[in-house]
């Protein structure tokens, strides 16, 4: 065990943040810590790094925070910069100084062993040599080149002084230095911030095969799923351990709560029955003894507590637009976007009810595209056109920067003065502002709370087209899940930018993919994109996209000039039957692919190739998710056919 915490409480002033912490970490273990914003995740990390000390407890139970001798803990907060005027390359390589110093000592010890060997020198040499290998001493340059490339720094940028980089870039630089230092316990608090999807995907593989232990705090559920083998949840000041990744944790937590609820209800019924029997016969001489025995049985019960309500609340909003748009919602043709120069050109079409996710690297124009079609920026060329009856709702992070001392209640009522106080409170309650939360001053709100308030105002307008730019930034996992449900339930059309792949995979039915030099429309969901990107199986021929034998029309559909004669039940049923049969084929294909990958995963020659094992496991998990999606659609169509 490299780290162990037992019987620890941590408080701020008179308020207990977390109590009776039981936490352990094995060498090489990958652990995630989850919980709502403000629950104590960062507090636990600060306890581990030694920034906080546990409360002094007056009980006989000792408070223990134990770290293995010689174990090095590394976190982003601990990474400092040595010289603001140094070029980026020198600043990053400064992290190698302790390793290079170790190499000098190893060389000196080796020389000593050649001339005058002794046991102490031999032991010290072996210890240092092992540590040097662990820290990757013989591949420093290779690791350096890999990381600066993966985090997106060019050769020209490596020559620039550290002081010339932005805050987000400096965070990336600190991250590179942290990874190159290779601590025994790597602590990462929201590591996917400021990273694009391709870098996040690479980082998942890197951390999964990292030799040291990893403690991870993240709101990125897919990231946790692909790295963590253990999840600790902090809820209401208590911490609980769950084996497995985030999906396994969520499932197990739900199962435990459902079982506790059933056991609680069953016990309450039994207590009610025993009390009824006792009350009925307690005053009858011949039955009093039996009645008392029933009361005694209740006293001896191990009472099952009623499970606390899940600390996961849902948003409640009007997801039905005030008015429907026409079928054609938005069309762009060679729309040039940018500020001083053109970043990208976009050609696409959006239909009514479509949910389009926008993904891609940083700085390529994703947010700029939304700002342009929202009328916040002028187009630099090309054109865009909204269809009949489109009413726009637009969200960006800048809109959630409240500086006023007004309360949440007053801010919303001022925006909608015709609403009653009760209506205002009900609407704000739908966005998790309950009780005295509505009287918080805007300047005191967290980032997630400001996002929720802004979304409440947008949804109150009941638009039929939503443009959302990173709506889940600063929002915790429970809030993300609630927002996802609302986006899925929204009856209008949706275009959203997000780095949250879990959200994209759950919500988007099509994608707009920004890469260097081009923007591509992809008429399938995220899972299909991941599975087929770069594959010869994916083709676009004459405006028609194909994945294998599966065909989907590109956004430029041919106009149907035939008059609308209404739905044809026979034609609709035939269409469902074809889809039903195709889904069976797709599920069978998933089974075949999974069997082949599983065989490869279990092959002896791959047993020590951890990178490949990680890739295979990720592919299997993606197949499982896709098969589950096919199964749900298959069952739904089956019910309709039976009806």
Q: How does this model look, in words?
A:
The protein is of the alpha/beta class. It folds into five domains: 134 residues, Rossmann fold, CATH 3.40.50.300; 90 residues; 51 residues; 184 residues, P-loop containing nucleotide triphosphate hydrolases (Rossmann fold, 3-Layer(aba) Sandwich), CATH 3.40.50.300; 74 residues. Helices cover 43% and strands 19% of the residues. It is built from 19 helices and 21 strands. The protein has a six-stranded mixed beta sheet, sandwiched between helices. Strands 14-15-16-12-17-18 form a six-stranded mixed beta sheet, sandwiched between helices. Strand 17 and strand 18 form a beta hairpin. Helix 5 packs antiparallel against helix 6. The protein is globular. 29% of the residues are buried. About 2% of the residues have low confidence.
């Amino acid at each position: 065990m490299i780290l162990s915490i037992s019987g620890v409480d941590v408080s701020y002033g008179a308020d207990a943040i977390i109590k009776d912490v039981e936490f352990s970490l094995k060498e090489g273990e990958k652990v995630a810590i989850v919980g709502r914003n403000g629950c104590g995740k960062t507090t636990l990390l600060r306890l581990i790094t030694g920034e906080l000390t546990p409360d002094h407890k007056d009980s006989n139970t000792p408070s223990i925070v134990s770290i293995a001798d010689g174990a090095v803990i590394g976190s982003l907060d601990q990474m400092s910069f040595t010289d603001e005027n140094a070029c980026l390359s020198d600043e990053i390589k400064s992290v190698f100084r302790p390793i290079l110093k170790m190499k000098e000592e190893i060389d000196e010890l080796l020389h000593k062993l050649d001339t005058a060997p002794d046991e102490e020198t031999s032991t010290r040499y072996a210890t240092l040599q092992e540590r040097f290998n662990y820290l990757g001493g013989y591949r420093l340059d290779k690791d350096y080149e890999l990381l600066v490339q993966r985090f997106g720094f060019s050769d020209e940028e490596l020559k620039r002084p550290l002081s010339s980089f932005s805050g987000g870039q400096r965070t990336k630089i600190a991250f590179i230095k942290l990874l190159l230092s290779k601590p025994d316990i790597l602590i990462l608090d929201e590591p996917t911030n400021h990273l694009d999807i391709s870098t996040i995907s690479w980082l998942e593989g890197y951390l999964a095969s990292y030799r040291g232990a990893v403690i991870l705090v993240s709101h990125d559920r897919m990231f946790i799923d692909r790295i963590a083998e253990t999840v600790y949840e902090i809820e209401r000041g208590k911490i609980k351990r769950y084996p497995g990744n985030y999906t396994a944790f969520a499932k197990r937590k739900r199962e435990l709560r459902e079982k506790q609820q059933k056991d609680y209800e069953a016990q309450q019924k039994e207590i009610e029955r025993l009390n009824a029997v006792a009350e009925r016969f307690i005053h009858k001489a011949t039955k009093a003894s039996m009645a008392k025995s029933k009361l005694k049985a209740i006293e001896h019960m191990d009472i099952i507590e009623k499970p606390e309500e899940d600390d996961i609340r849902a948003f409640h909003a009007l997801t039905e637009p005030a008015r429907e748009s026409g079928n054609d919602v938005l069309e762009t043709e060679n729309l040039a976007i940018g500020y001083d120069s053109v970043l990208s050109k976009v050609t696409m079409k959006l239909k009514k009810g479509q949910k389009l996710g926008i993904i891609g690297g940083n700085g390529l124009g994703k947010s700029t595209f939304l700002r342009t079609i929202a009328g916040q920026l002028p187009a630099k060329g090309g054109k865009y056109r909204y269809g009949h009856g489109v009413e726009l709702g637009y969200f960006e992070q800048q809109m959630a920067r409240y500086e006023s001392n007004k309360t949440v209640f007053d801010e919303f009522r001022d925006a909608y003065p015709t609403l009653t106080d009760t209506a205002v409170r009900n609407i704000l309650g739908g966005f998790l502002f309950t009780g005295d939360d509505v009287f918080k001053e805007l300047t005191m709100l967290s980032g997630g709370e400001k996002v929720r308030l802004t979304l409440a105002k947008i949804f109150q307008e009941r638009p039929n087209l939503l443009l959302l730019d990173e709506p889940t930034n600063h929002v915790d996992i429970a809030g993300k899940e609630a927002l996802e449900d609302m986006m899925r339930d929204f009856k209008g059309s949706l275009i959203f930018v997000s780095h949250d792949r879990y959200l994209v995979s759950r919500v988007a039915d099509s994608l707009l993919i920004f890469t260097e030099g081009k923007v591509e429309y992809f008429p399938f969901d995220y899972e299909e994109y991941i599975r087929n990107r770069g594959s010869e199986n994916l083709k676009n021929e004459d405006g028609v996209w194909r994945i294998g034998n599966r065909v989907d029309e590109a956004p430029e559909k041919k106009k149907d000039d035939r008059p609308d004669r209404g739905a044809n039940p026979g034609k609709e049923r035939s269409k469902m039957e074809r889809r039903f049969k195709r889904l069976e084929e797709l599920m069978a294909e998933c089974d075949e692919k999974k069997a082949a990958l599983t065989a490869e995963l279990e092959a002896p020659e791959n047993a020590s190739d951890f990178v490949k094992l990680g890739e295979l496991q990720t592919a299997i998990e993606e197949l499982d998710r896709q098969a589950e999606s096919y199964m749900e659609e298959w069952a739904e169509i089956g019910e309709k056919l039976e009806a």
